[in-house]
């Protein structure tokens, strides 16, 4: 019997409630180190809430989260030094240029200035932002914002990278660039955890998948085990219980025989 790889992230009985809404309901999850992990689930499943709690941005009501064995909420400084985060709806310092943003992030993390400059140059070049390094972040497009956010998350070479929908609103060329950077990062034995709605992308990139529904994990494991002999798309629809008849009651929609009503 082979021993399983150590956990990069271990979540035990995690709960989060917003008023009447239970967003995360007793979630338990183990994400192996050195894996490329896809977190999938329908809208409102609790992915962003979970990632926010795992990365120390949102305090859980209950439960425990360990990143490489360190408790996120008991020892946040140590954990935050080891992780990189690209949150959803990333808020950035809009009046800094892309390069200044990276320099600021690097200095905040205590890195020497010369090393920050060297890495910032390389990241800007690899992410096709070299020509936009002096442009204000406020003037960046959606895809450029994702890329500079990714650069900021990678700058200190974290052990684990958390990305909330990194490909949302990104064109195919930029998506390819981001994919290349993430693959290169994962090949070094680091761990990537990203949420996405694009099953094809998760299938292409990930070797491990966790499927969430209604605040809980309904499947987790190696990609091949979770999808079985189906596509991930099909497995996902079956796991979260797709409703084929959802639109049937919209009998007023379409067909205007006697003119529009
Ligand atoms: N700050 C908040 N206040 C109130 N309810 C919230 C808040 N944040 C999340 N929720 C609710 O918690 C549930 C889970 O939301 P969450 O954003 O975590 O889901 P998600 O899986 O990331 O969804 P999506 O795929 O649409 O981004 C939803 O019902 C949402 O309305």
Automatic annotation (TrEMBL):
<dbReference type="InterPro" id="IPR027417">
    <property type="entry name" value="P-loop_NTPase"/>
</dbReference>
<dbReference type="GO" id="GO:0016887">
    <property type="term" value="F:ATP hydrolysis activity"/>
</dbReference>
<keyword id="KW-0046">Antibiotic resistance</keyword>
<dbReference type="Pfam" id="PF00005">
    <property type="entry name" value="ABC_tran"/>
</dbReference>
<keyword id="KW-0547">Nucleotide-binding</keyword>
<dbReference type="InterPro" id="IPR050763">
    <property type="entry name" value="ABC_transporter_ATP-binding"/>
</dbReference>
<feature type="domain" description="ABC transporter">
    <location>
        <begin position="9"/>
        <end position="239"/>
    </location>
</feature>
<dbReference type="InterPro" id="IPR003593">
    <property type="entry name" value="AAA+_ATPase"/>
</dbReference>
<keyword id="KW-0067">ATP-binding</keyword>
<dbReference type="GO" id="GO:0046677">
    <property type="term" value="P:response to antibiotic"/>
</dbReference>
<keyword id="KW-0813">Transport</keyword>
<dbReference type="InterPro" id="IPR003439">
    <property type="entry name" value="ABC_transporter-like_ATP-bd"/>
</dbReference>
<dbReference type="GO" id="GO:0005524">
    <property type="term" value="F:ATP binding"/>
</dbReference>
<dbReference type="GO" id="GO:0005886">
    <property type="term" value="C:plasma membrane"/>
</dbReference>
<protein>
    <submittedName>
        <fullName>ABC transporter ATP-binding protein</fullName>
    </submittedName>
</protein>
């Amino acid at each position: 019997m082979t021993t399983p790889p150590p956990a990069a992230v271990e979540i035990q009985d995690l709960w989060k409630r917003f008023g009447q809404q239970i967003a995360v309901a007793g979630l338990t999850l183990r994400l192996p180190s050195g894996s490329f992990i896809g977190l999938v689930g329908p809208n409102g499943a609790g992915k962003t809430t979970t990632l926010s709690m795992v990365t120390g941005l949102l305090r859980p009501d209950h439960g425990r989260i360990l990143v490489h064995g360190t408790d996120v909420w008991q020892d946040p400084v140590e954990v935050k030094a080891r992780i990189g985060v690209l949150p959803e709806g990333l808020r950035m310092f809009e009046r800094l240029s892309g390069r200044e943003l990276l320099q600021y992030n690097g200095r905040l993390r205590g890195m020497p200035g010369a090393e920050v400059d060297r890495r910032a140059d390389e990241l800007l070049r690899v992410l096709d932002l070299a020509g936009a390094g002096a442009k204000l972040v406020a003037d960046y497009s959606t895809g450029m914002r994702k890329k500079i956010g990714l650069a900021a998350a990678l700058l200190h070479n974290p052990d684990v990278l958390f990305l909330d929908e990194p490909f949302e609103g990104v064109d195919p060329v930029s998506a390819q660039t981001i994919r290349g950077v993430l693959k290169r990062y994962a090949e070094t034995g680091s761990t990537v955890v990203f949420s996405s709605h694009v099953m094809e992308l998760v299938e292409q990139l990930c070797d491990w998948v966790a499927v969430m529904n209604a605040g809980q994990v309904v499947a987790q494991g190696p990609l091949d085990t979770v999808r079985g002999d189906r596509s991930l798309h099909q497995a996902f629809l079956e796991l979260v219980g797709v409703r084929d008849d959802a639109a049937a009651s919209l009998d007023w929609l379409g067909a205007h025989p006697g003119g529009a009503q």
